[in-house]
Write a structure and sequence with these properties.
Layout: H1 10-22, H2 27-62
Helix pairs in contact: 1-2
Amino acid sequence: MPSLNVSFSDEEMEGVRAAAAAEGKSLKQYLHDLGVREMHRKRFVAGAAAWADRLRSEFDEAFPEEVPPSRRGDGIAAA
């Protein structure tokens, strides 16, 4: 299984150790979970943005007063 060596300053290591202890995890498990959690967060954000893009025209049609002026197409320029 791949592994990774990561360098921290003394101050950074102190903070990471405290964060791991606060979650009741070893340093290894805490740093592993942190990386995986960030990967999942990025996937979620990308999926949510794609979902919003797919539904944007339907939302704009249902709520025209909520369409930003720059996208209205009524000749009004954004400030």
